[in-house]
Write a structure and sequence with these properties.
Helices cover 35% and strands 22% of the residues. By secondary structure, the protein is of the alpha/beta class. β25, α17 and β26 form a beta-alpha-beta unit. Bound molecules: 5-amino-5-deoxy-1-O-phosphono-D-mannitol.
């Protein structure tokens, strides 16, 4: 959702900014741009539409010297992707240059006021109002001027700004959109996300909402919006740079699918002892845990699907009612949350604006809210009452794969934890759950081993214009997830349904051009799913089934079968999602698409 980066120091800003943007491109790739300022120079700005490679072409052969700069990769919200709408945006005098991530909700009024004052707008963006507003309020002191305008801005922002009047200063501020500061020897960085600067430093400061930072090569100051200077809390990041490289795979998405056995093991590591779950980050007291009678889960997209699987697991194992809500709906529906309820926010990035708003809404009710989060230090993890980290490592592919599997594992761990603390699961059941969890890395490895077979069977989608995914009970949400993955990266229309629901309408879609992908692995409802497949077969639909190894029956009623290792239905989502990820991946590859950067999407959605 737009990526911003900034640098002040002795290195070449052109190189640092470009490299940072290349790591942030997954956040948006509609256009990109940089502004650079030298000690005795004007601000120089370069922009291009489309992916970052186009900016490289623009910069080729251009000698850009300087020691301070800002860069931006855009995911369009206001104004189409075009050069004029790309960031950075500069003041008319070219004294100020600014990059922004977020949405300024009152931009229309501000724009009108500025136009009345004689400001001319060159773009259709909400961002341009910020730079003109800054210009209109400029006192000659950049920090002071930024403080003057921030209270006027409604909505969300992370900004980086430079001024030719103060060529030794980079100013940053955030409210609602993430921003991190990187610390080097006699140099500073800003970025939307840690990977952008990991090549240069692993020492960072996560800015809080309302923070304003002034960065010089050898000095850093941070204030809150009331201008109280704050002490800086440095964090050392453990992710290594390798995580941000493709490691021989054609796409990050494929690399991340292959990392899943390790991710499962990493997420389990240190969290299971004997038949108990250890969640050190859980800050709820014994009494609070005992009092929980209802759980709410709030998330978006793939994380929402993980929540749906979590509901199925928890309700089956613990008989605690779980309500799952899409985060963008949750805060506006005046949710009924009691003080004794537990609210769980699930998010890979920990920055999704809707999920963050859900957390804040939940906290108003006085209930405890915990996060299941992948990115350490992210806003949700800092604001929640506790966080279970998923340890999937850096996920770069826009289509979430390994983070989803890690979320599922965290939900099993949470089930085990609550089951023990609330005396719901006896020793025998806990032993059983732990035994199965430990088997999962190896079982997922077995699915990775049949990648070539899955790739071949993906051909069922070659002439598809649409597709249906079905699953039941534990696997309903896996059908939704399979459909979302396919839509996201192959642009083949796909719908996920509960198997039994197909006959109530969606079956009308089945045709040569709309194959069925059925999750028909062994389960309590296996026979029912088989009947649902038969119903499609009777209408000459093409069928690709996921089935359990040794199941001969399914091959008689399906065109293609992908055989998967046998596991208890409770854990089957972890196994069944993997072939669906491969199907989406190879469907996209077969259509010659850029898997890591699907059109219209961004990795981290930090606007509402
Ligand atoms: O970072 P989050 O998990 O909060 O992101 C939520 C969704 O935006 C995300 O899962 C999105 O649906 C992915 N592109 C799915 O592959």
């Amino acid at each position: 959702m737009c990526g911003i980066v900034g640098y002040i120091g002795e290195k070449s800003p052109k190189e640092v900014l470009y490299s940072g943007l290349s790591k942030l491109e997954y956040r948006g790739y509609d256009s990109a741009g940089i502004s650079i300022l030298g000690k005795e120079q004007e601000i120089q700005t370069y922009k291009s539409v489309g992916k970052l490679a186009n900016l490289r072409e623009v910069l080729k052969g251009v000698e850009v010297s300087g020691h301070i700069g800002i860069g931006h990769t855009r995911w369009a919200t206001h104004g189409v992707p075009s050069t004029k709408n790309s960031h950075p945006h500069n003041s008319k005098s070219n004294k100020l240059s600014l990059v922004h991530n977020g949405i300024i909700e009152n931009y229309a009024e501000l724009r009108e006021e500025l136009v009345n004052k004689g400001y001319e707008f060159l773009s259709d963006t909400d961002t341009e109002v910020i730079v003109h507003l800054l210009d209109a309020n400029f006192t000659g002191n950049l920090v002071e001027s930024v403080f003057k305008i921030l209270p006027i801005l409604e909505g969300a922002y992370a900004i980086g700004v430079i001024s030719s009047d103060e060529p030794d200063l980079l100013v940053a501020a955030r409210k609602g959109s993430p921003l991190v500061i990187g610390l080097g020897e006699n140099e500073k960085y800003i970025a939307s996300d840690v990977p952008a600067i990991l090549e240069y430093t692993n020492r960072v400061i996560f800015l809080e909402d309302g923070d304003v930072a002034s960065l010089k090569q050898d000095e850093i100051k941070i204030w809150d919006l009331e201008k109280n200077e704050k002490s800086t809390e440095e964090t050392e990041i453990e992710w290594d740079l390798e995580a941000a490289e493709k490691g021989g795979y054609e796409y990050f998405t494929l690399k991340e699918i292959h990392e899943q056995p390790r991710v499962i093991a990493e997420t389990l590591k240190g969290k299971i002892k004997g038949n108990s779950a250890i969640i050190e980050e859980m800050t709820l007291t014994k009494e609070e845990l005992e009092n929980i009678t209802k759980i709410h889960m709030v998330a978006c997209g793939t994380s929402y699907h993980a929540a749906l699987v979590g509901k199925a697991i928890i309700e089956q194992e613990l008989r605690i009612p779980v309500e799952v809500e899409v985060a963008s709906e949750f805060r506006y529906k005046n949710p009924i949350i009691n003080k004794t309820d537990l609210v769980i926010l699930i998010s890979q990035s920990g920055e999704t604006a809707d999920t963050l708003a859900g957390l804040r809404e939940a906290k108003k009710s006085g209930a405890k809210a915990i996060g299941i989060i992948n990115v350490m230090g992210s806003t949700i993890s800092r604001e929640a009452d506790g966080t279970i980290y998923t340890n999937a490592g850096l996920e770069i592919g826009v289509a979430s794969t390994k983070a989803f599997i890690a979320q599922l594992i965290a939900l099993y761990i949470l089930t085990l934890y609550l089951g023990e603390k609330k005396n719901i699961l006896d020793d025998k059941r806990r032993n059983y759950i732990v035994e199965n969890l430990k088997k999962l890395p190896n079982m997922v490895e077995k699915v990775l081993d049949i990648e070539e077979d899955i790739k071949l069977k993906t051909r069922v989608l070659d002439s598809a214009r649409s597709s249906m995914f079905i699953g039941r009970n534990m696997n309903t949400a896996i059908a939704y997830e399979g459909a979302l993955k396919l839509k996201e990266i192959s642009y083949i229309h796909a719908e996920g349904y509960q198997s039994g629901e197909l006959k109530h309408g969606p079956i009308a879609m089945i045709s040569e051009e709309c194959p069925l992908i059925a999750i028909a692995t062994k389960s309590d409802t296996y026979e029912k799913v088989k009947s649902n497949i038969e119903e499609v077969r009777a209408r000459s639909g093409k069928i690709l089934a996921l089935a359990t190894l040794g199941d001969e029956e399914i091959s008689k009623i399906s065109d293609e079968v992908i055989y998967l290792p046998e596991i208890d239905e409770l854990f089957s989502p972890v196994i069944n999602v993997v072939p669906l990820q491969f199907i989406a991946y190879y469907a996209a590859i077969n259509r010659g698409l850029d898997v890591d950067k699907p059109r219209n999407l961004a990795k981290s959605v930090t606007v509402e």
